[in-house]
Amino acid sequence: MSEPARGRGWLAFWSRPHKVYVDDRHRRVHYARLADDVLSILPGPGARVLDFGCGEALEAERIAARCARLHLCEAAEPVRSELARRFAGHPKIVVLDPDGLARLPDGSLDLVVVSSVLQYLSVEELRALLRLWRAKLAPSGLLVLADVLPPESSALADALALLRLAAREGFLLAALAGLASLAFGDYRRLRNELGLTRWASDALLAELAEAGLEGRKRATNLGFNPARTTFLARPRPSRPEPVGGEGPAAIGEERPEHDEPGRHELGR
Ligand SMILES: C[S@@+](CC[C@H](N)C(=O)[O-])C[C@H]1O[C@@H](n2cnc3c(N)ncnc32)[C@H](O)[C@@H]1O
Q1: Per the confidence metrics, is the pTM higher than 0.85?
Q2: Is the CB–ligand 1 distance for residue 98 below 6 Å?
């Protein structure tokens, strides 16, 4: 399977109706928790934010109410059209395709959130995107790569995270039925045929560094799946700072972690 064919395969999946969320409650609690977590790292009310690979962005208005501008970038055309319809005329929400993102002025974003997207990108696609996000970030901006699959992640760990969430939120029966249909459905078939990209910490931190970003692994993931990982990164200054000058703010209170030598894996 060539890398472009793989990317097209996953994009085709996201472009048609799918059952990744087992029911409407699952969909709503997922997007609500993600929005809570994004709001917890929002730099402030003046922030210009990008949600890249935003999907249905059910809580976009709640995030937009707390920032200056929210860009929603989505590659799947039917999903993007629906976003454009929902947010037509919204004073703070802008819906973009990937070309539209490339046309934004450099340095014009304070926060870029990329949640649950890296597994669908090839290494080459991610490299190009890291450079794009780096260019669009303001010098003190923050890139958040959330829900990244580590090498040891598995469909079983994902299923257990879903069942724990479902038991807590009261949709256990729907989750059991949803897991059964996922096991034989389109997502499972594509996961086997196309594979998912997994990232070891050191390998992803090295890619971030190569793109001019200084990254850290966050202590906890955004969203509900504790078996996945979130990385925070800020642009490295392109020129040495003058002595006593103010560099970009430190990346939260998180301490860097070191894994075994990095590697990425394709497939399960
Ligand atoms: C698992 S969903 C994640 C949605 C949302 N970010 C979340 O965390 O729930 C992955 C989304 O990424 C989008 N996507 C995949 N590749 C993309 C790309 N190269 N550019 C923009 N969006 C992409 C898909 O169309 C899909 O809507």
Answers
A1: yes
A2: yes
